[in-house]
TrEMBL record, chains A, B:
A Gene Ontology biological process term: methylation
Protein name, as recorded: tRNA (N6-threonylcarbamoyladenosine(37)-N6)-methyltransferase TrmO
InterPro entries: TrmO-like_N (IPR023370), YaeB-like (IPR040372), YaeB-like_sf (IPR036413), YaeB_N_sf (IPR036414)
SUPFAM superfamilies named among the record's database cross-references: YaeB-like
Family, per entry: Belongs to the tRNA methyltransferase O family.
One Gene Ontology molecular-function label: methyltransferase activity
Organism of this sequence: Butyrivibrio fibrisolvens
Ranges in coiled-coil conformation: none
Keywords annotated in UniProt: Methyltransferase, S-adenosyl-L-methionine, Transferase
PANTHER family the UniProt entry points to: TRNA (ADENINE(37)-N6)-METHYLTRANSFERASE
């Protein structure tokens, strides 16, 4: 079963190469395809949105990525791809909750998006705390992994 | 530009028709395709996961869905599709953070997934609070909309 999607727009920012840390200060513009512009109506009333994007530069290879150590770090455990947020995953969908900086006619400006310049965007969803915010427990390695991420 | 995806597995539960409320008590099994089974390793150490799925029964029509009132309720404002979580959206990706009930060889059992039986699953991501949990502000209509959702 094949599922087909098309970008609704693209990420524009100063990040030209992928990186594993320090995404917190980057500001990105999401420039929408003209047919979707009026879908932004009302977004300025939200403080945060969730961006779903296509990790088009990633390459999932079963033998290398179905199980791996996060960021290939020796101090991380060997876990499955569905137990980590790594980019080389089946279907290569990235997902990040970011702060809304501004909304103009065809462009949404956000802070903290960990996607490089030119990344195709698949969806924008408003962040609903009652739906998205969880008091979740994680294994101890996650806090070590995320230490310098933002 | 076309982006192709394939399901990594399917939702199995007792919900045969879509609904707008009371998803909180439903338990769902996500049965993985055999090639992805070992990708679940380590997931039992997380309390919550994020499920991305293909809303295959939804139909996005620009004139009806690019702007609409959430759940078509008269007491909701007219907002763009990217300012709401409605299912009839471009690319039809659904996304929900759910509680992990159990992980077995090829099946992840979760609670609170708002997807009907047979829904194709696109990705499973562990919930990282430092990454996903936001103190977000929303317009007042969101709290009214979500009152009986779970």
């Amino acid at each position: 079963m094949k599922i087909e999607m098309e970008p609704i727009g693209y990420v524009r920012n100063e990040v030209k190469d992928r990186k594993d840390v320090s995404w917190g200060e980057d500001t990105s513009s999401i420039v929408l395809d003209s047919q979707y512009i009026s879908g932004l109506k009302g977004l300025e009333d939200f403080s945060h949105v969730i961006i779903l994007y296509h990790l088009d530069k990633a390459k999932y290879e079963k033998d290398k990525h179905l199980q791996r150590r996060p960021q290939n770090r020796e101090d991380m455990p060997l876990v499955g791809i569905f137990s980590q947020r790594g980019k080389d995953r089946p279907n290569r969908i990235g997902m990040t909750s970011v702060k809304v900086v501004s909304v103009s006619e065809d462009t949404l400006v956000v802070k903290g998006l960990d996607a490089i310049d030119g990344t195709p965007v698949l969806d924008i969803k408003p962040y609903y705390p009652v739906y998205d915010k969880k008091d979740a427990a994680v294994p101890e390695w996650v806090d070590r992994l995320m230490e310098h991420y933002f």
